Amino acid sequence: MSMSTLTLTINGEEHRFENLDTRTTILDLCRQHLHITGPKKGCDHGQCGACTILINGERINSCLTLAVMHDGDEITTIEGIGMPESLSDLQQAFKDHDAFQCGYCTPGQICSATALINEVKQNWPSYVTSDLKNPNGLLVQEIAERMSGNICRCSAYPNIIDAISQVLENEVVNQSGQSGAGHSTMQGNGSAVTGIWSPPPSQTQLGKQANKNTSTAGGRS
Description:
Structural class: alpha+beta
Mean pLDDT: 87
Number of strands: 5
Radius of gyration: 20 Å
Helix content: 25-40%
Number of helices: 7
Strand order of the largest sheet: 2-1-5-3-4
Shape: globular
């Protein structure tokens, strides 16, 4: 099974493939055909996020995505976001906050967080957003939910959240002059991220729990 010609732009460089097996995923194309090893093959089932890359600016699990589906698309891996001599702001924040241990998941984490920042800038809501018209992507619950598809087996989550929060506040609040305009910072929310951590419940989750308690109350005497 093959197709004649496939053209992909990967990290700003155009690549053409002749008679590529149509079953080839973008992850295998990058790693095995082009020796771009930033994206990692973790679970190979789309569950861990280690293979996360950007396609036309949006994050995807490259282990589940066939290369032939993206003829002509622009693909960005961690190598295209920044290299050691030219780190992006987010990569520098991960370094500053020690947001990794073994580092295996880090390329996927940073690719995912890069897209997350753009999603927040565009006011995309998430599953835990209480006000869909005015999502507050700076809340710790929002960041945790939006990064929930990226697993860190070393459990560096508190530092990952800190790194993303720092860049979000710099890019979304400071540069747009929106501080105090519907955005509350992680620190202002009273949700310090330290130690063994899970995100505090969102207002949406609290509301669901309250409804559940109300529906079950009085069921027994």
